[in-house]
Write a structure and sequence with these properties.
The structure holds two protein chains of two kinds.
Chain A: E1 3-7, H1 11-17, E2 25-31, H2 38-55, E3 60-66, H3 71-83, E4 89-91, H4 96-108, E5 112-115, H5 121-124, E6 132-134, H6 141-152, E7 157-163, H7 166-178, E8 182-189, H8 197-206, E9 210-213, H9 218-230, E10 236-239, H10 248-251, E11 259-262, H11 271-284, H12 290-308, H13 314-323, E12 334-335, E13 341-353, E14 356-369
Parallel strand pairs in A: 2-3, 2-4, 4-5, 5-6, 7-8, 7-9, 9-10, 10-11
Antiparallel strand pairs in A: 1-3, 11-13, 12-13, 13-14
Chain B: H1 3-34, H2 41-59, H3 62-83, H4 93-115, E1 131-134, E2 138-141, H5 142-164, H6 166-176, H7 178-183, H8 188-211, H9 221-235, H10 240-266, H11 271-296
Antiparallel strand pairs in B: 1-2
Helix pairs in contact in B: 1-5, 1-6, 1-8, 1-9, 1-10, 2-3, 2-4, 2-8, 2-9, 3-8, 5-6, 9-10, 9-11, 10-11
The chains are: A alpha/beta, B mainly alpha.
Transmembrane segments (chain B): 16-36, 43-60, 66-85, 97-122, 142-163, 191-213, 225-252, 273-296
Protein name (chain B): Branched-chain amino acid ABC transporter permease
GO molecular function (chain B): transmembrane transporter activity
Amino acid sequence: MTVLRSLLAGTCALALAAGAQASDLKVGFLSTLSGGGAGLGVDIRDGFLLALGEAGADDVEVVVEDTQRKPEVAVQVADEFIQREEVDVLTGIVFSNIALAVVPSAVNQGKFYISPNAGPSQLAGRGCHENYFNVAWQNDAMHEAAGAHANDAGYESAFIMAPNYPAGQDGLTGFKRFYEGEVVSEVYTRLGQTDYAAEIAQIRASDADVAYFFLPGGMGISFLKQYADAGVDIPLIGPGFSFDQTILPAVGDAAAGVRNTSEWSPDLDTAANAAFVESFRAAYDRTPSMYAAQGYDAAQLLLSAMETADVSDADAFREALRAAEFESVRGAFRFAANQHPIQDIYVREVVERDGVWTNVVVGPSLQDHSDVYGADCDL
Amino acid sequence: MTTILFIEQVLNGLQFGVMLFLMAAGLTLVFGVMGLINLAHGALYMVGAFAAASVAAATGSFLLGLIASLAAAAMAGAIVEIVVIRRLYRRDHLDQVLATFALILIFSEGTRWLFGSFPLYLDIPEALSGPVTLPGGIDYPLYRLFIIAVGLAVAGFLFWLIARTRLGIRIRAGEADREMIAALGVDISKLYTLVFALGAALAGMAGALVGAIQSVEVGMGEPVLILAFVTIIIGGIGSIKGAFVGALLVGLIDTLGRTLLPIAFGTVMEASAATTVGSALASMLIYILMAGVLIARPQGLFGAAA
């Protein structure tokens, strides 16, 4: 396993100059950086490090390690971070199953965890914890927004589809929670399935007004290309995961014009966002994804808390995190009682801009949205 | 379910089957002739897809990409055979599995290092894109028909190669008795490299063909590899005919199971439960088939009795 240690801008030089000045805060960043799904982890990491670099945060030390998308590896990495590296804050996990394996034990050992992506319902509801902050979304948010959008667009019947695993079932449940039309068919595909000919034939035969699908990563790429090639004229909508900047270039014009829901978009009109997109492009020579934006916000949240409190005073630091006094790239952002976001979710459309396939905001779908699980949380 | 939908699903199953055949043919040849379990076969599939995607992106020609996939996978196969695999023929299967598993990791990380973590773009050529209307009013993607045609053509070519050519005679002889054909003066190590490269080229071509309608990404080969192993176990290890029949069986049963089972359960239980149970059972179907074949005919449908 490669251990990638990045001491940020000038930390080394400063430390040498000042004798033995230790970092004020140590972050353990564990994420999926190799194998399938690595693109997401890489974007979160790059966004996170970009924010720290921009702030010139030489009092933050970051230890980066790969979890290979395996819960058992992630648990080992987290133990190493906590026991050997003695980090104060952990962050970086992409996938919900890995978050569920790592987060409860980390926060119970008094560490802070800032989630830049995964938001499983367990950690938003009964399993919420005072040291767990989710700066991205609860998993259902985009599906709920898609359901609301399907109502707004006047679709009276829907064909809905997701992989047969917990997040897929949650996704369709989230869609149905807000969708008021008729669900003509609900199909579960195999996780990791690459051929959707059989499902596309069913969509064609269903005669629904719209097809809603949640297929993250490579599954979405395969489905979109095959759907476009099959010439089915039923419009698609999906959550932002299926139309993210990490996959759009591989889908090409097969996704043109498709509506999807996300809390962020590269063209979202806030000053902080314009600056973020520009500096991310300058630093990494590609358009940032939603994941990069979330990594960037996770670092901003951390930095904002460090300004008012020291991590050695856990209670004060927790209060400072809870205040969320930072300018999120997605505009208005605050935490609900369960320390998950209250935020707007937008409808986006896939377009080609300057030769790059990307998303533009069409309008809001849900405003000041928070999750339903907070009611079960005792915080 | 209407007749049209059923015919469309049969075509889908057929297309999936011939694609699996391209993978399984190489796997079964290598196992049959050299007695080698090659877990890295999926990596060669990935090599083919990446070669096709990068050449097609650079030249704008899908055909050149397809040729590049054959060449790159055959070359990668030959190099791997000469450098690594050759040392494994005399070792037991555990050593082979370990070494070829290491090759998977090396190929995956090597590809990630060369091409980055993000999936590549490979599109269907203009002339083959979009649906065509078949007799009976079925709209079916032309490209999938193209895959079926290519798969059947390759199957025909392989049968001819094995049954009618000198190389085929040597391959069959190699399966039957390695020592004897070496004693007859056939350069056995050259034959092995050739067979391995041929299998690799078929895998690479499958990767390129499928890459155009799926996602070209690191790790794309492993899920297909598992199905290819199921295919050759059902068909009988070492038999091209077995690989062909096994691949079509797996393709048809998997595709039809996925659509028919939820409908079948829907007649006896509530819709959303039927979907869940039906989908779960559908994903087990081919493994149930494999288990059934192993019980009734342990050597596979067309395998030579041990």
